[in-house]
Amino acid sequence: MQASHTATDDAQAGFRNALVAAGLLIPTGVDGLYGRSGVFEEVVERFNDLITSWGRDDGAEVMRFPPALARHHFERSEYLKSFPQLAGTVHSFKGDERAHQTLLRRLEEGEEWTDGQMATNVVMTPAACYPIYPTVAERGPLGDDGALVDVYSYCFRHEPSLDPARMQLFRMREYVRVGTPDQVMDFRQSWLERGRALMESLGVPLAVDVANDPFFGRAGRMLAANQRDQGLKFELLIPITSEEKPTACLSFNYHQDHFGLLWDIRTPDGAVAHTACVGFGMERVALALFRHHGFDVRAWPGSVRAALWG
Predict the structure, then answer these.
(1) Which superfamily is assigned to 2-68+126-309 in CATH?
(2) 88-143: per-residue pLDDT in tens?
(3) DSSP of 10-56
(4) Which of 54, 91, 185, 248 makes a 20 to 30 Å CA pair with 290?
(5) Is pLDDT of 290 > 50?
(6) With helix as H, strand as E and coil as C, how does 118-145 read?
(7) Burial of 229 (C-beta count, 10 Å sphere; 0-12/13-18/19+)
(8) Residues 255 and 176 sit within 8 Å (Cβ to Cβ)
């Protein structure tokens, strides 16, 4: 078991080092936190445009948010019940002159200085869809067609890793559907098919499989089993640093009435709304493309270049 773990670590570190050597990722000294080169960003932007072209006819409302949430919205989301290990909060100095001098002394002497920081009203966004639910709820009951939102944001999850496909700050593009169970399930089924076809057009090996979120603790194991048993989450998997454990690059999630209940989102007949989303891991897809087509985008297959650059 230890040998397998070491082999996985070596593969992850090897790919990361190769990306750095090629100038595609820029290390910062913190695992999972990277700068990106112009070429890397070009691939992400071209993939972002491709997503837009595949979803354009749906008529989604476009919303863009900063990579942070209001703390009271985050608390109401119940994220801490399921994923406390991934959450990131924003703290800031709120002391007086004396506290400032103490901070500077500790910093100069290499001592711990962060205990003088206090939580602000801002929390890092854990998933791009999280600002959507309170926004939709504020508008009152849904119309007959429900709501469909296109959202794109940097997200934060505290899981430092050697794996370049598991970044702490990363971008997520999502389409979020809010409506009746039938509307929401039709949406997810449509994107399960479209997502596979979209990624097949990019010439990467893939598989779609049932999955679960990384729920925390003993109760989390039961939630994960329930999520899998009900088929609430599917992932599109692509080998990036491991053939045996491919990376989830797209996810297709049915939340049932979870967010509808939390935010009191109602359909026209007064029933609690259901929600679903399809999420695209932007950096992960870019990494998959570099992994399978090479670091020189000019040498990528013509069909892939045509899909991305036209």
Answers:
(1) Bira Bifunctional Protein; Domain 2 (3.30.930.10)
(2) 999 999 999 999 999 999 999 999 999 889 999 999 999 999 999 999 999 999 99
(3) HHHHHHHHHHHHTTSEEE-SSTT-EEE-HHHHHHHHHHHHHHHHHHG
(4) 54
(5) yes
(6) EEEEEEECCCCCCCHHHHHHHCCCCCCC
(7) exposed
(8) no
Nearest-CA neighbor of 215 among 87, 97, 38, 82? 82
Rounded to a whole number of angstroms, the CA Rg of the chain reads 21
Residue 62: Cβ-neighbour burial (10 angstroms; 0-12, 13-18, 19+)? exposed
% of the chain with per-residue pLDDT over 90:
89
The band of 5, judged by pLDDT with boundaries at 50, 70 and 90, is: low
The two tokens of residue 152 are 């794109």
Distance CA 164, CA 180 (A): 38
The answer to whether residue 285 scores a pLDDT higher than 50 is yes
Per-residue pLDDT, 214? 83
Helix (H, G, I), strand (E, B) or coil at 213: coil
CA 65, 67, 72, 73 torsion-angle sign: positive
Domain ranges of the chain: 2-68+126-309
Q: Mind listing the pLDDT tens digit for each residue in 10-50?
A: 999 999 999 999 999 999 999 999 999 999 999 999 999 99
Asked whether the predicted pLDDT for residue 150 surpasses 60, the reply is yes
Strand, coil or helix: 147: strand
Three-state SS at 155? strand
CA distance 55 to 100: 51
Q: 93 and 103 in contact (C-beta within 8 Å)?
A: yes
Rounded Cα–Cα distance for residues 261 and 257 (Å): 6
Q: What is the model's pTM? A: 0.94
